[in-house]
Amino acid sequence: MRAFAREEEKMGYRKAKAKAKSMPKASRGVIRQVARRRQDADEVAIALFEAEELQREQEEEDKILLEEARLYWGGDDDYDDDENEEPSSFEEGSSAQFMSEEEWY
């Protein structure tokens, strides 16, 4: 198999294929098997490359969306406004907490 692979690289695929036809059937089967494996490996490599490319694009898009959100909300990502708010005048635990003051009165 290795010898055929070397010859394939040296002579080119068409010449190697012509030579394979002159070989016994058992050898031809092995050659076909090697060719299928190479094709499968190529397809896997292409799929991995496309997946990596898609992931990079998604990460770039996520960064852009995060930056737009940060600019829209006008704050730091690490700053939490909720911690600095004063407690509401409504009783804790009541449903009134979630109502605006206008609705309450």
UniProtKB/TrEMBL annotation:
Q: Where is the composition biased (Basic and acidic residues)?
A: 1-12
Task: Tell me the segments the record calls region Disordered.
Answer: 1-25, 74-105
Per UniProt, the ranges with Basic residues bias are 13-22
Q: Which top-level group of life is the source organism from?
A: Bacteria
Q: Where is the composition biased (Acidic residues)?
A: 75-89
- The name on file for this protein is Uncharacterized protein
Question: Which species is this record about?
Answer: Candidatus Magasanikbacteria bacterium CG_4_9_14_3_um_filter_32_9
Where is the organism placed in the taxonomic lineage, from the top? Bacteria, Candidatus Magasanikiibacteriota
